[in-house]
Every structure is written in C-alpha cells, then in structure tokens.
Amino acid sequence: MRRLATVLMASALAFAGASAASAGEIAVIVKTVNSTFWQNVQKGAEAAIGSAKGNTMTFQGPAAESAIADEVNMVENAVNRKVSAILLAPSDPDALVPAVKKAWEARIPVVIIDSQLASGADKYYQSFLATDNRKAGELAAKALIEKVGTTGKIAVMSYVAGAGSEIGRVGGFTDYIKANSKLEIVGPYYSQSQMATALNQTTDVLAANSDLKGIFGANEPTAIGMGRAIKQAGKAGKIVAIGFDGNQDLQEFVKDGTLTATVVQGSYQMGEKGIQTLASILAKQKVDKTVDTGVVVVTKDNIDKPEAKNVLY
User: What is the pLDDT of residues 12-71, one digit of tens each?
Assistant: First the structure.
C-alpha cells in the first residue's frame, strides 16, 4: 500500500509539474515548419521570449501549408493543455476560426500573424500582426510594370487559394495591374506552397506562352520554383520576374538577374513582435488591434544595403 501511495503521489506530482509547465507555455503555431520564412519567424519569437517572463515557448506547424486539418489539431491541442497564450499563423481563414474560438472561450489570449482570419472572427483574438499584403501585392505589380511596360502578357504563380495572405497579396497585384495597364494576365496558378509544383507549373506556362513578358511568384516556395524554372528554360534576364520573400535562394536569384526584384516581409519581426505583444497582453497591458510589419522591395541595387539586410534571411 505504501509503495502504491508513493507511486500515486509521484504521478500526481508529475501531473502537477506538467500542468505548471504548460501553464507557462506560449505556443507558436505556423503554417508549416518546412520553410525558411517560418523558421525566421521562429528566430524572432525565440529572441523575444525573454520578454514574456515565466513563460517558455514551443514551436510547431504542419509538414505542408495545405495540411490545414493538422494545424487545426495543433491549436486545439494547445487549448486542451491550457497554454498561457498562442501565436498563430492560420493557413485557412475559415478552418481555424472554431479552434481560435475555443481558445477565446478558455480565456487563452491569441495573437494572429501573417494571414487574417475570416470576417467576424476578430473578437476571438487580441491582435493581428502582418504585412499589408494588398499593399505588398501592389508594390510587386508596380515593380513589374516599371520593367515590362503596360502592354503584353504576364503570369501569376500563386500558392494556396483562399489563404488570407494570398487573397490580399494576389488581389492587390492583379487589381493594380488591371487599373494601371493593359497587360493580359495568365493564371493564377496554385502551387499549394510546394516548390516542385511551382517549378513544373512555371515550366508549362513558359512553354505555352513564348510571348510572356513578366511573371510574379507570390510566396517563398512558389518564387523559388518559378526562379528555377526560368533558369532551366534559359529565360533568366529575358523575362521580368518578381518574387516574394527573401531566403538565400531568392537572394541569389536577385543577384544573378533571374529575379528583377523580390518583395520581402518582416518575418523575423512577426515572431519577435508577436511574442512581445503576447507578453504585454499577459501583463494586462493594452495592445494595438492591428500592426503592419512592413515590406521592402529588394533589387540588385539595394540588396547589400541596410534596408534590405534587415529583412533578408
């Protein structure tokens, strides 16, 4: 009996310890862990976790951005283990709403980064930190028009249809093109944020449209696949290509002329400011409902300057 009582007490203490640990946990849940963009968000979050005193940080995400159900489960699991707060980049504006609502009902503060949730869900989270994706899409379109002109044919290589960032970014791009030029738009094509898919799609688009003057790759894996397809087709420097995000592959494409420019978000800032915002909320301080984390159009001319170095990764 004494041994049983000791075992039960040890189990109780272990459970209590686990509860205490999870109570001090900030769960960072992103669209996928298999992207340097989200890994850079992680770096920013890790740098800021010290500001959330008494809390540790966990970082997770699905294997692919298209694995939306997996991300929903991750948020629900975080709620069930009673974390202190959640920093979330939702891969789908609608599918993540019920899980975020559960966090709200459990009085777990949530800060959203990168992609907006569906209209009407703003009461379930405390702050939204992101690129102004519509403005970023417009900047990409402006950069393309400056090199291509206002007539001819261009293509749009997008990623996950319906993702909050995709709606604003590609919508901003196409609306600006239509309002400021007579360019014909081919696409958009959706890579599901898979580099290999984007490579194959771009290869097909280039083959089917020999008169293509410009092309836009709307996120990191899509732009990388697009860039590789352009090089393989011998079109580097012969077609105006605008990418999005700023990992090493995309930086090299800018330097060697495969990409005319790439529009880079403050991914590190999303993680850093996201954790800092949650720390303020946990300290019962007022925070802004919306924070623009900014973008920089990176070209061969400014890639080595501080404005670009501050966002490249």
Answer: 333 333 333 344 999 999 999 999 999 999 999 999 999 998 999 999 999 999 999 999
Instruction: Look at residues 59, 60, 61, 57 and name the one whose alpha carbon lies nearest to residue 26.
Output: 57
Query: Per residue in 229-244, is it b (16+ CB within 10 Å) or e — as a string?
Result: bbeeeebbeebbbbbb
Work out the average pLDDT over 134-146. Answer: 98
Beta bridge partners of 264: 296
DSSP-assigned letters across all residues of 190-214: E-TT-HHHHHHHHHHHHHH-TTEEE
Q: CA 125 to CA 156: how far, in whole Å?
A: 32
Confidence of residue 11 (pLDDT cuts 50, 70, 90): very low
Backbone angle region of 56, left / alpha / beta, with phi > 0 → left and psi within -120 to 50 → alpha:
beta
User: Quick one: 44 exposed, middle or buried, by C-beta within 10 A (0-12, 13-18, 19+)?
Assistant: buried
Tell me if residue 92 falls in helix, strand or coil.
coil
**Which domains can be identified in the chain, with CATH numbers?**
25-131+267-293 (3.40.50.2300), 133-264 (3.40.50.2300)
Phi then psi for 275, rounded to 5 degrees? -65, -40
Half-sphere exposure of 181 toward its Cβ, with a 13 Å CA cutoff? Answer: 23
Angle at 216 between CA 62 and CA 313, to 5 degrees: 55
- The encoded tokens of residue 149 equal 């002109």
> How is residue 67 written in tokens?
């694995």
Residue 310, pLDDT score: 84
pTM for the model: 0.81
